[in-house]
Amino acid sequence: MSLIELHNIRKVYKLGSGKDAQSFIALDDVSLAIEEGEYVAITGPSGSGKSTLLQIIGLLDHSTSGQYLIYGQDVLKLEDDQKTEIRSRFLGFVFQMFNLLPRMTAYENVRLPMVYRGKVDHDKIIQTLNQLGMGSHIHHTPAQMSGGQQQRTAIARALVNSPKVILADEPTGNLPQKHSKQIIEALESLREEGITIIMITHSDELAQRADRIIRIVDGKIESDSVQKHKLEEKNRENNPYQLKSFNYTNWLLLKQTAVMGYRALMKNKARTILTMLGIIIGVFSVVSMMAVGEGAKINVEQELRRIGSNMFRIQTTWPKIKGSASHYRTVTRINKKDYFSIKKEAQKKGSSIKNVSAVLQGDKILSYKGYSYSTKVLGVNSSYSQMRGSEPEFGRFFNESENNNQEKVLVLGKTVYENLFPNQKNPIGETIDIEERKFRVVGLLPSKGTSWGGDIDDVVYIPIETAAKRLFGLNYYHFLYVQAKNEKLLSKAIKVVENILRKNHRIDSGVSNDFKYKNYGEMKQTISKISDTMFKLIAVIALISLIVGGIGIMNIMLVSVIERTREIGIRKAIGARSRDIRNQFLIESVIIGVVGGGIGLSMAMFLGMALRFLLNWEILFKPYAIFTAVSFSVLVGILSGIYPANKAAKLSPINALRYE
Ligand code: ADP
Ligand code: MG
């Protein structure tokens, strides 16, 4: 059985397309058999079809018609992966243009076919490089080597997987005379290892050294002459080549590919960062907006907890009068009677109401020993302190008997204290003037900070009766704060209070209330609704920016596939399967996605920390938000890489190699 048999091989190139399409017959009915161990030179004028023939033998290209057998097996019928397997284990290529990968060292170039096979044998790589005299140049990249050294590296690469056949297309065509000799000697020495050599050459002198010279003219074999005696039949190893399954996941390759992908991206830092920008901005904006949003939600919740989601507020309202006089009615303002009725209700056993406080408020100027300060004066019941969590830090809150006696006592908010007592003197027992009435300070409240942009420490509290009779001169209240026993009893408490007030104000059934509520429990729901809407909005913004980011990645990956077309051709020629090429580009786009996402995430974290420590903002990073943002960026990386990666994987090896 012959090693290689070609029967009636034809190769027709199509030129142009549509009506102008022409065909060119590059090989016309070529039949030939090559035995194991032969040293064959192929000669002929330029353009006669020599390279085309070698590429068909090398399974880089396919013939238009005819049959190609290796050890009797019809290889043209094989699947692409199986052809790759033959290229990788059985054949070794040496090109006129060397075709080394420029960014890799000699060692890495030679290692590559092994990586594609899934097993690296370091000693074999070194030994092969030594055999070709490249031992002292293993860490040089092609740019740091002479042409001869590059070609010797390329031969080492062809040999490293111990092929049976070396295919060389004018291996010395680009080399000066003195380097050519070394190359030819290196190739010829392979014969002793039983390797079959098929070499295209222009040089008659080189051709004469071969066992057999095949001369091709105009796509046909013109002559086929055996120079020397063929090797004895018995000397040949007769172990036909066995196809092995090539259908495995090459972990070594994936690892190497990730390293290579990382290096390729680092090589082009500016471009990589620009490509990542969409993802960076997307992840950054989502994560930081979510963190700020969650923080704001917490703020609001804390606020509501302080007010109490079991609280509501009542104030007088004037019914709208629509022209007709029959709608007119008098309005009873919230008053002392209302307060006491509700208070009485609260004291009943099993009542839904826990506590109540009336409120009068107004801005007044306070003065103390030459200092004066304008602030909000709140007249409240003593129960207000417990209801709103306003326990003094120093001194005490006033009590109900002080209220009933209309005593001029006062509890200071922190901001007011700081303005009236700049020397931080103990204020308890001091006298402060409000509109020439002398108030005695009984308590100082702790600082509570700001809320909704307002300073909640900028306030003083006085008893409501003192406020009504002595300061404001009013016989009604601005508000009543009512506290239900708990949030669930809130609506029941509202009903109870409504009935009391309607009765007190003598409102006939069918006539609307002359008071209205502000329900803090409802406010909480409203706020969580608002934050839900905001969340959806953020999600949409994020999605858009991630899509834009994905398009950016896809764009760059497509450019990168075109830029590296030759590289893809080389990789396929030395044993990369389509899926290996696809993975290579996918891994790169995933790296862009992951790193971009990571950068966006860390920027958001950094901003969050800065806002928290510098501006004292409430910031909350929820793990699910981080997880979602990062997995989205990985997904975007994958999705935007699929199309370019498939495009790269589909390239035929020879078209990719020919790409300029
Ligand atoms: P050689 O190697 O003997 O110089 P080739 O095998 O490269 O010749 O080419 C044989 C002929 O086929 C040439 O005339 C060339 O123009 C033509 N040819 C080679 N490759 C292509 C191609 N991809 N498309 C069209 N024509 C081609
Ligand atoms: Mg050629």
Provide a descriptive summary of the structure in words.
This protein is an alpha+beta fold. It has 3 domains: 4-90 and 163-248, P-loop containing nucleotide triphosphate hydrolases (Rossmann fold, 3-Layer(aba) Sandwich); 263-301 and 526-658, no CATH class; 318-513, no CATH class. It is built from 20 helices and 22 strands. The strands form 4 sheets. Strands 6-7-8-3-9-10 form a 6-stranded mixed β-sheet. Strands 12-13-20-15-17-16 form a 6-stranded mixed β-barrel. Helix 9 packs antiparallel against helix 19 and helix 16 (520-563) packs antiparallel against helix 18. The radius of gyration is 45 Å and the shape is rod-shaped. The mean pLDDT is 87.
Summarize, please.
The chain is of the alpha+beta class and 660 residues long. It contains 20 helices and 22 strands. The two termini are 40 Å apart.
Distance between the termini: 40 Å
Structural class: alpha+beta
Helix content: 40-55%
- Rg calculated over all Cα atoms: 45 Å
Question: What is the number of E strands?
Answer: 22
Relevant terms:
20% strand, Rossmann fold, six-stranded mixed beta sheet, alpha+beta, 3 domains, 660 residues, binds magnesium ion, 20 helices, binds adenosine-5'-diphosphate, six-stranded mixed β-barrel
